[in-house]
Amino acid sequence: MIYDVHEDGEYLGSVEAKNPSDALRLVKLHKRSLQRKAEGKPLDQWTPGRINNELDRLDKISSRLTDKFIAAGRGYEKPLETLRMSDPLALEYKENLASREELRNEIARRWGPNPPRRLPTRR
Hints:
The protein is mainly alpha-helical. Helices cover 59% and strands 11% of the residues. It has 2 domains: 37 residues, no CATH class; 69 residues. It contains 4 helices and 2 strands; from the N terminus they run E-E-H-H-H-H.
């Protein structure tokens, strides 16, 4: 069910959830996430864990994009062909590619020659 979420008279948004309390929680989490992004630190101040998490998120999006290309009958396209196009799916692909490249460049800057695909984190 879709709920319009209000708190203290302020409209926070609409969300699909099982019940009103879940809807409020989801909207608050989303709002907090947007605030973090808006207050975001420069990439050179990100922790290794944050970089790895963002790469994981972008990899999942990339996988979904591959599924979309296949569903659209474009699974045969080479990356270079896609980069030359300007349709919405190609633009989404380019954005994802640029974000991943930016993170990989940051890893290379920190690590030096032959960087790993993910930064080591303390555990």
